[in-house]
Design a protein that fits this description.
The complex is a heterodimer of chains A (235) and B (328).
Chain A (H helix, E strand, L loop, with lengths): L4 H10 L7 E7 L8 H14 L3 E7 L4 H6 L7 E4 L5 E4 L6 H14 L8 H8 L5 E7 L6 H14 L3 E7 L4 H6 L7 E6 L5 E6 L5 H27 L1
Parallel strand pairs in A: 1-2, 4-6, 5-6
Antiparallel strand pairs in A: 1-3, 3-4, 5-7, 7-8
Chain B lengths: L20 E7 L3 H12 L4 E5 L11 E2 L8 E2 H14 L3 E4 L2 E7 L2 E6 L2 E10 L3 E3 L15 E2 L2 H4 L7 E5 L3 H10 L5 E5 L9 H8 L4 E4 L2 E7 L6 E6 L5 E5 L2 E4 L3 E3 L30 E3 L13 H25 L1
Parallel strand pairs in B: 1-2, 1-8, 2-5, 8-19, 10-17, 11-12, 11-17, 12-13
Antiparallel strand pairs in B: 3-4, 6-7, 7-8, 9-18, 14-15, 15-16
Helix pairs in contact in B: 1-2, 1-6, 4-5
The chains are: A alpha/beta (235), B alpha/beta (328).
Chain lengths: 235, 328
């Protein structure tokens, strides 16, 4: 057990509205490269004990190759939701990321949005016509990061073209180095097929509506820019 | 470092709905605002706190070691207790942003991101934001080695060389946190003396990873796409030095946030702080101010002093409302 009794009761309270089964898939690894894999398993068991509608399955990235391949998982630890596999956590959702994780369980388990999806935003989300990955690099002690994670995950929930990935920058230090992460939250929009970085920026407003608004508009601009570049090459 | 699972206040699922009318509306959810809410709630005043977050700057504090009764507590946990305490006595917490405050007769009409309301008293407790150095490279390299949030970014500087600029408690706390990750921490300060509590200074002096760089100021932050070096100037000799670093954390103090008060004609001092009397009143009747935004903070940006001002402001608000109702 990694959660205290007090925290477990809070989790119970927060997850009360969950209506349907939420299946979490956890891809783990062995050895030092998966520092927190055992803790994550314990955490998922704790959450399950708080609400039995939340279930989880554990896979091993190197042994359960077929399942890992199906979800495009190459390295552990990765957490995703079976019903919404585009919502992903690369690394442990601890510290300030924990409430974001609980928020995602609620989102999947109720189907109810916890922010105001105005027609303007919906139009932009529906118009996303490229497969994108939105990386949100975090540290668990960063109080601003969960808003960025929530925003990326909500867009991933709503758009079949977007994968929203929380990346714990310490556990995934290679990836963090590749994207020159020296402040969090750092957000990177990448084209899924080519891996081309379309846009990157640091920071996020600490309010969910403003955060979603920022991410939707950044994606919109990134796509416009990408298309402009392609158009130019076409000539 | 142990694994922690925070129920950060910033993510608290409950936000009350904004009602049409209150006795006391508190702008800002830091220590001053939440303490005012506690005291106003206990005075049986209909009280609401409107804030983007509940905890304010304390949420950025790794560990708080100087709040009586708690020898060491996480900033977010202390603020969660503040909030719960205020709610227990009836104060409501509304997550949102105050956009405009106007006075109409004896009422304040307050426009927020979640609707319009009115209140007999406004307690203004918006605190302050990070002061910038204002040197070349600071804005350009923000997020690329320049940081104002050590608790967010310290862990990204594992094995690297960093500098902290400042001489107050925050600078020393951040430097101490950074020694957990960085290979070397320079503490750059313009004077030979420090405003920080001696206990912090003594602790850092003993830390082999820390080197004091005094009396120096930062002239420029330089690097290609990321911070690579600082150009420093010795304040006594005028000599310039280059200090190679991978990151720089800026902790040179705070600036009061008073934009909302300008249309109300609230008196500010020459540095921009809200001028308050001993009862935390401003020159606008019914408008009280508390915490880091006021002249009463006297440069002492502490949780306990902000909380004390919040308590005084709420009790003054109670007297003001009683008098107001006596006149009606």
């Amino acid at each position: 057990m990694v959660l205290s009794d007090k925290d477990l009761n809070k989790v119970k309270e927060i997850l009360k509205p969950v209506e349907k089964e939420v299946k979490i898939l956890f891809f783990r690894d062995d050895g030092p490269e998966c520092q927190y894999c055992n803790v994550i398993e314990e955490l998922l068991e704790d959450i399950h004990s708080a609400n039995e509608k939340v279930v989880y399955e554990v896979y091993h990235v190197k042994k359960d190759v077929e399942v890992a391949k199906k979800y495009g998982v190459e390295k552990g630890p990765v957490i995703l939701f079976e019903e919404a596999p585009r919502i992903q956590y690369w690394g442990i959702p601890s510290g300030h990321e924990f409430p974001a994780f609980l928020g995602d369980i609620l989102l999947v388990g109720t189907g109810k949005l916890d922010f105001e999806l105005n027609p303007h935003l919906k139009e932009h989300i529906d118009a996303i016509d490229e497969d994108l990955i939105v990386y949100v690099f975090v540290t668990p002690s960063c109080p601003y990061c969960p808003y960025a994670v929530k925003a990326a995950h909500r867009i991933a929930y709503l758009s079949p073209r977007v994968k929203g990935i929380m990346v714990e920058a310490i556990e995934y230090s290679d990836l963090a180095d590749r994207y020159n992460v020296s402040a969090v939250p750092k957000n990177v929009i990448v084209k899924a097929d080519t891996g081309e970085t379309l846009l990157e920026w640091e920071g996020c407003p600490p309010e969910i509506n403003a955060a979603v608004d920022m991410f939707v508009h950044q994606i919109h601009h990134a796509l416009l820019h990408a298309k402009g570049v392609e158009h130019h090459h076409g000539h | 470092m142990g694994i922690e699972f925070s129920f950060s206040l910033t993510e608290t699922p409950t936000s009350a709905d904004l009602k049409e009318e209150y006795d006391v509306l508190i702008v800002g959810g830091g220590p001053a605002g939440l303490s005012a809410a506690l005291y106003a709630g206990r005075s049986m005043l209909r009280t609401v706190v409107v804030s983007k977050d509940f905890g304010g700057q304390v949420l950025d504090a790794h560990l708080v070691e100087n709040y009586p009764g708690f020898s060491s507590i996480k900033g977010s946990e202390l603020m969660e207790r503040f909030r719960e305490h205020a709610e227990k006595f009836g104060a409501e917490m509304v997550k949102g942003e105050v956009k405009k405050i106007q006075k109409e007769g004896n009422w304040f009409v307050v426009e927020t991101s979640v609707g319009v309301t009115r209140a007999k008293v406004v307690i203004y407790a918006t605190g302050s934001t990070h002061r910038k150095l204002g040197v070349p490279g600071e804005a350009e390299l923000l997020g690329k080695g320049v940081s104002y949030c050590a608790i967010c970014d310290a862990a990204l500087f594992r094995g690297k060389v960093v500098a902290v600029v400042g001489g107050g408690n925050t600078a020393f706390m951040d430097a101490e946190l950074l020694t957990e990750y960085a290979s070397k921490v320079y503490l750059i300060h313009r004077r030979r003396g420090f405003r920080a509590e001696p206990i912090y200074v003594e602790r850092l002096k003993k830390n082999p990873k820390v080197e004091f760089v005094i009396p120096y100021v930062v002239k420029r932050i330089e690097g290609e796409g990321k911070v690579e070096r600082l150009v420093l100037e010795n304040r006594e000799t005028g000599e310039e030095n280059i200090l190679p670093v991978d990151g720089v954390f800026i902790d040179i103090g705070m600036e009061p946030q008073t934009e909302l008060l300008k249309p109300l004609g609230v008196e500010l001092d020459e540095r921009g702080y809200v001028v308050v009397g001993p009862d935390q009143s401003t020159n606008v009747p019914g408008l009280f101010a508390a915490g880091d935004v006021t002249t009463a903070c006297n440069g002492v940006h502490q949780i306990i002093t902000a909380a004390a001002q919040g308590a005084v402001a709420a009790l003054s608000a109670y007297e003001y409302i009683k008098k107001l109702e006596g006149e009606e």
